[in-house]
Amino acid sequence: MSIFKRFRDMTMASINDLLDKAEDPVKMLSQFLRDMEQDINEAEVAVAKQIAVEKKFKQQFEEAGQMVDKRDQQAMRALEQNNEDLARRALQDKKEYQIRFDEMKTQYDVAKQNADRLRGQLTEMKSEFGKMKNKKDLLVARAEAAQAQKQINQAMSGFGTDNAAKGFDRMSEKVLQMEAEAEASNELRSGNRSLDDELNNLDKSSGVDDDLAELRARMQAKKQS
């Protein structure tokens, strides 16, 4: 059957080849498993139909066999009662049931072989599906680890590079420029004092001169004494 052949053809080599071409391995793996589940569902339907055929032939050959035994016993009773004609008719019917029994038994044997083979293939498919599911979990974990490593590598690629160093240098120069501008502004303010500032300084100078004059007077008085 095509569904079994298609499943068997889906080897790990073909899966790996498809993964190489996939943009998202995790999504592709999930799709593979969904395809496998669909194959298994189709296989289960096919197996169920074959089992139904098997049971049908079994029922028919068993019924025919029962009628063979029944007609044989009836022919025996008819002969015991000296009814040879009835015994002949019973034996003739027995032959017809025997032919039917042989035909149905042959059909049943074939149907059972087919059903057994399909059961085995279905079991194999489910076993393979389980292996693939475990394989998928492993591959997903590896893909996530690889993606995390890739993101870290990308983040690290711009960390502490020349661009960052140059950026720090620019900011350092900018801070120095700001400090220089602040100092220049302060000097400019000192050079452009207001009239009030000069008058205040004048008052301060006059006070010092008075103190100095007092000090000289005291020194002169000390020399004279």
Automatic annotation (TrEMBL):
Keyword Coiled coil applies: yes
Q: Mind telling me which InterPro entries this protein's record contains? A: PspA_VIPP1
Specify the domain of life of the species encoding this protein: Bacteria
- Residues annotated as coiled-coil are 33-135
Alphabetically ordered keywords of this record: Coiled coil
Q: Segment Disordered: which positions? A: 176-211
Protein family: Belongs to the PspA/Vipp/IM30 family.
Instruction: Provide the protein name.
Output: PspA/IM30 family protein
Say which species the protein is native to: Paenibacillus agricola
